[in-house]
Amino acid sequence: MGGRLARVFRSFNVESRARREISKEKPTPAPRHPIARTDPLADHPEIQKEISRKNDRLLTLLKDVYVESRDPPVQVKDGCGEHLPCKPEEKRLTKLGHLEDLDVKKVSKGRISIVEAVTLLNNHKLHPQIWTAEKIAMEYSLELKEVNSLLEFFIPFTVQEFPKETRKAI
């Protein structure tokens, strides 16, 4: 209620207030300092001439300079820190459904792709006796605790179509 009231006062007579502000005479700007307006080099033509003149001795010295640069050899790092032991990351092939082109082909163990997540949530919703948390964890190489959290907090949408008679009652 307060927002509506505030909006009424804000929009009251907006056009005439805007015209009044626009038609006001603009204030004149403050005068600038006299030094800021003048060009310091305009008073000294010999400095201008010295700036625009070429120095032949410096040009010849510049032509004698030859710079050759070489990049240092590139060292390839294998992604492991110097003090941390390297452990190769295990990958698994994804269980692709009907969206093969949209999904990634390989995923690290302990992770799932978006298509797999939607598929396993839908399977669990349709057949909870068959697709239990233990079976999903074993099938997708996940931890049981993470699968339980996934099944608890993520629920796929369902499309419900109401008959025409009940639409009027709703």
UniProtKB/TrEMBL annotation:
Which residue stretches does the UniProt record annotate as biased composition, category Basic and acidic residues? 17-27
Q: State the residue spans of region: Disordered.
A: 17-44
**What biological process terms from GO does the record include?**
mitochondrial respiratory chain complex I assembly
One annotated Gene Ontology cellular component of this protein? mitochondrion
InterPro entries per the UniProt record, alphabetical: NDUFAF4 (IPR009622)
* Pfam families, per database record: UPF0240
Query: Which domain of life does the protein's organism represent?
Result: Eukaryota
User: Can you state the subunit structure given in the record?
Assistant: Binds calmodulin. Interacts with NDUFAF3.
The family classification in the record reads: Belongs to the NDUFAF4 family.
Q: What is this protein called?
A: NADH dehydrogenase [ubiquinone] 1 alpha subcomplex assembly factor 4
Tell me the lineage of the source organism: Eukaryota, Metazoa, Chordata, Craniata, Vertebrata
Supply the gene name. Answer: Ndufaf4
